[in-house]
Amino acid sequence: MTIEATTWLYVAIEKTDPNEQIVGQTDTENDISFIPAFLSKEAAQQAMFHLHLEKKKKYETQAIIYEDLSRHAVENGFLIFVLDEDGKVMERLPAAS
User: Fold this and answer.
1) Left if phi > 0, otherwise alpha if psi is -120 to 50, otherwise beta: which for 31?
2) Does residue 16 belong to any structural domain of this protein?
3) 65 is a domain residue
4) Which of 16, 45, 48, 52 is most buried when burial is the number of CB atoms within 10 A of its CB?
5) How confident is the model at residue 97 (pLDDT cuts 50, 70, 90)?
6) Is the Cα dihedral 68, 15, 47, 43 positive or negative?
7) Rounded mean pLDDT of 73-88?
8) What are phi and psi of 61, to 5 degrees?
9) What percent of the chain has pLDDT over 90?
10) Quick one: pLDDT at residue 34?
11) CA distance 43 to 41
């Protein structure tokens, strides 16, 4: 699947009233900060078990358009990894050049 500016992706959101924050992860082996994103809400909800999340915080899955997610990621020094429901990387965005 080609991910375009208007593609909807699903991300984990940390809810700390009244704020919401997109959940990022760190690959310590490769020193990469990334936002896990998913092609479907179901995949995102299943994969939440594979993410490193703090136990006492509340999380939910929300849709975000790729263009907005990409801008947020770049501004905060993150890549976007599109994952499947098992947490395996299907695509890295932006693609390595």
Assistant:
1) left
2) yes
3) yes
4) 48
5) very low
6) negative
7) 96
8) -95, 130
9) 88
10) 97
11) 6
Task: Please give the residue range of the domain that contains residue 81.
Answer: 8-93
pLDDT tens-digit readout, 5-48: 999 999 999 998 889 999 999 999 999 999 999 999 999 999 99
Tell me 50's DSSP state: G
In a domain, 19, yes or no: yes
> Is 54 in a helix, a strand, or coil?
coil
| Tally of structural domains, the chain | 1
Backbone angles phi, psi at 3, to 5 degrees: -95, 120
Which pair of tokens denotes residue 4? 């375009």
Q: Please tell me the distance from the alpha carbon of residue 37 to that of residue 55, in angstroms, as a whole number.
A: 20
Closest by Cα among 76, 74, 64 to 94: 74
Task: Give the span between the Cα atoms of 3 and 84, in whole angstroms.
Answer: 14
